[in-house]
Amino acid sequence: MNPHQCERLTEILDRHGLEALIATREPNVAYITGFRGLNHTVFQTPQYAVFSRRGTGLVVTNVEIASVVTDRIDADHIACFGGFLAAYDEHPDGDVKRARDLMDGRARSAGDALASVLDALGVRQGTVGLDEGGVTPAGWQRLAARLAGLTAVPAADHFLAARRVKSPWEIEQLARGVLLVEEALNEVIAKLQPGMTEQEAVRLYQSEVVKRGADPVPATIATGARTWIPLPLPSERALRAREVVRFDVGCVFGGYHATVARTAVAGEPEARLESAYGAVQAGIEAAIAAVRPGVPASRIHAVAVEAAHGAGLVTYPAGHIGHAIGLEPYERPKLQRGSETPLVAGEILRIELRHFEMGWAGLHVKETVLVTTAGARVLNRSSRGLIVLD
Q1: What whole-number distance in Å separates Cα of residue 246 and Cα of residue 7?
Q2: Which residues lie below 8 Å from residue 245, measured CB to CB, with a gap of 6+?
Q3: Cβ atoms of 223 and 239 closer than 8 Å
Q4: How far apart are CA 125 and CA 62, in angstroms?
Q5: Which of 84, 177, 244, 304 is least crowded, fewest Cβ atoms below 10 Å from its Cβ?
Q6: Rounded to the nearest 5 degrees, what angle is found at the Cα of 61, between the Cα atoms of 55 and 66?
């Protein structure tokens, strides 16, 4: 297990008097073990990862065991459950033997498998933190009854707290993801011209993401009057001369989310557009300049809105201007009014200003920044200014 993750989770155990943390959601399971289960993603079958002072554990359906073994998933104790059956080669290698041993020892249920892992880790009494995000209320009751001798308390917030400060490796994944998104977007910008449809532009972007070894996510490339629709699906509408284009695109790289938002215009921008975009850009510049450890999240929001208003965009709404990002596209803290959570060194924020003027245009700029002891380090390399398409 990564030493950084181990240190962060051990701190949670010590601070809250817990014997173990049990993950149920994919981001938290991946944080402990690195495993991402396709069966869980598609069919929502139970999976658990356990972190304790004595080691880690993983519980999956037995159909996932071959992946766990061949991908060399790092867990001290592995248990499985389920009805999947397999035939075996007459001369099995080490991976096949290990997979067969695990599958032959499968438990009757997910709860039984989890209980066996906790027992193997020496967690037999006391309080454990159970990530409530991946279990139903009825599922919680079943697990609580099965884990006799242990008291389960909600732990979703504990996982978010642990994941908040990123390790050097995580920072590298996020930075590479941002760079990859910008490279893919630059390919679209270079080829985008009047006549290209939104769907064509999105397909081009996603193909460029795949070429670079990342997984695409739903993308917004909106043109003209559709730019002021906050979440439009890509349409067959073709770009026209002098129209605005709004990009809000991203990917998943190494399990970490990266996103970029930019605004362009197909030709010479009108004065109204330049003025409004200049105010949006002033807001994001002010927000980035205000980032440093100890500053409340609400302060980043306040300076951004103040700067946008001061630059003449008096109609700019005071909604949130971003949040943290990592194994999930949305993490805490949220940069909004009333959020007094102080920023901490090592977290990565997605700072964005979006201005939707219904009936006219939508403008958007989004930057990813690392909070350092000296302030903000912007991970983006592309210009955040208004893009003028040739």
Answers
A1: 41
A2: 192, 221, 222, 223, 227, 239, 263, 264, 265, 266, 389
A3: yes
A4: 27
A5: 84
A6: 80
Q: What is the pLDDT of residues 167-186, one digit of tens each?
A: 999 999 999 999 999 999 99
- 50 and 18 in contact (C-beta within 8 Å)? no
C-alpha distances (whole Å) from 339 to each of 229, 286, 298, 299, 310 are 27, 18, 5, 9, 23
Give 310's Cβ-side CA count (13 Å radius): 12
Q: What is the largest CA-CA distance in the chain?
A: 76
Q: Rounded CA gap, 305 and 172, in Å?
A: 30
Coil, strand, or helix at residue 4?
Answer: helix
- The model's pTM is 0.93
Amino acid at site 296: P
Nearest-angstrom CA–CA distance, 209 and 219: 11
CB 325 within 8 A of CB 331: yes
**What's the mean pLDDT when you consider all of the chain?**
96
Helix (H), strand (E) at residue 256: strand 256-265
Residue-wise pLDDT tens digits, 315-332 = 888 789 999 999 999 999
Residue 70 token pair: 């061949």
